[in-house]
Amino acid sequence: MTLTVPLMLALFIANLDQTIVATALPDIGRDLHAGAGISWIATSYLLTSAVTTLVLGKLGDLHGRKKILQFSVVVFLAGSLLSGIAGSLSLLASSRALQGIGGGGITSLVMAITGDLAAPRQRARIQAALGMVAALALIAGPLLGGAFADGLSWRWIFYVNMPVGVLALVAIAAKLHLPGPEARGGRVDVLGALTATVFTTAVVLVTTWGGHEYAWASPVIIGLAALGAAALALHLVVEHRAAEPMTPLHLFRSAAFSLAAAQFLLASLVLFAGMLYVPMFLQTVQHKSAFAAGLFIVPLLLGLVAAAALSGPVIARTGRYKLYPVTGAVLVGVSMASLGRAGQDTSAPALIVPLTVAGVGIGFFVQVCLLAGQNALGHEHIGVATGVLNFFRTLGGTFGAALFGAILAAGLRSRGPSPGESAQAFRAVFLWTVPFMVLALGLALAMREEPLQDGTEDGGSASEAGKSTA
């Protein structure tokens, strides 16, 4: 377990920053005099991290995961410091984008390194432990964010990363030893990274601006949609021809991998809808403080922790996993439909119960999607495959934050500012998550359960973890 300590520390700060901002957004907006663009504080982080899960994951394959992980932590800390001292919305969004570059690398590399430490069947235990650490960070985020916003300053939500990040760097240097064969030379797929960036940015801008800043039929939105489609087509061509592609297309020949990636995206999309907009609902509609609103995210994430803690050992023992995403889709869909009835007078238990159940469902998704996707491919593809899976996960969070933010903005604009009318806009956000869970259920049912390898086929290199330093 000592090998996982540096991974836990790095993953903690990366996940902490995904939720610590949520409960402080109203305070940040007031302090920086930000209007509708406040959502870019969350979106800019998710946008850059979506791309760097691919880029830095691939660089870890080529040049060694340990050194790229160290680089990612340093970039993340630089972004944290700049975010803390930012004096305007544009500077804060730019600094959050820098944070996202490091955060995307951390998430992708930590999960890829689990492939060096254990074979798929045993890997479920390590990933369950890391999943609990990540979820605890997500739980701490709203609490710390609300506490800092109410008692100190929202700037401390970024400064708090510094001591933990420095400790993570020390632990990585001293404790993390990886198999030597992981490091090899190769050319970086710059054009693939560029086209992926253009595609992701275009789609996020369409979902963020469409129907809000610009009409859906406006030249700007149509142009961005065309740009996104062209970038995606070019990306596919580039990746087909690249010697060391950023997203190897042959990965998607595996139906299990493709379905796992799609489910990862959908689960993340709905998770961010809950984490970002439940606290905003509580502050806007029920007039709760930032700290009190953050407390309501705890049941959601505790459910996620419990699901990971229970399912990981069971999957490792039985090798069976298909039941979990099927059950998860049903639990999340029913729970979000229940939240879609919330209003001014909804009691705390009526919110806590569905949030907890939704967390359990999402926990089943997160645990299985990464494991099934990695298991569908050989160990030689573990780094890039994990990067692609995490790209879809982060892309889901990015699109979720932007898409549901646009739905909320449209609802608030079409209704009055009163709490009762605002509640209708938030209910629309929660109800729009249900169709995505219906789709996720269909994908989970379509997934063919492949036996988890026990280490005799692809775990050879993993079994040598710790014998040489990357």
List the helices and strands and how they pair.
Layout: H1 5-19, H2 25-32, H3 40-63, H4 65-85, H5 89-117, H6 120-151, H7 156-159, H8 161-175, H9 190-209, H10 219-241, H11 255-284, H12 290-295, H13 297-318, H14 323-339, H15 348-375, H16 382-414, H17 419-431, H18 433-446, H19 460-463
Helix pairs in contact: 1-5, 1-6, 1-8, 3-4, 3-5, 3-9, 3-16, 4-5, 4-8, 5-6, 5-16, 6-13, 6-15, 9-10, 9-16, 11-15, 11-16, 11-17, 11-18, 13-15, 14-15, 14-18, 15-16, 16-17
What can you see in these coordinates?
The chain has 470 residues and is an all-alpha fold. Helix content is 76%, strand content 0%. The protein has 19 helices and no strands. Helix 6 packs antiparallel against helix 13. The longest helix has 33 residues, at 382-414.
List the total number of helices: 19
Arithmetic mean of pLDDT = 79
Range of strand content? under 5%
Helix content: over 70%
Distance between the termini: 18 Å
What string, H for helix and E for strand, traces the elements in order? HHHHHHHHHHHHHHHHHHH
Query: Structural class, from secondary structure content?
Result: mainly alpha
Radius of gyration, rounded?
21 Å
**Strand count:** 0
| Largest sheet report | none
Shape: globular
Low-pLDDT runs: 456-470
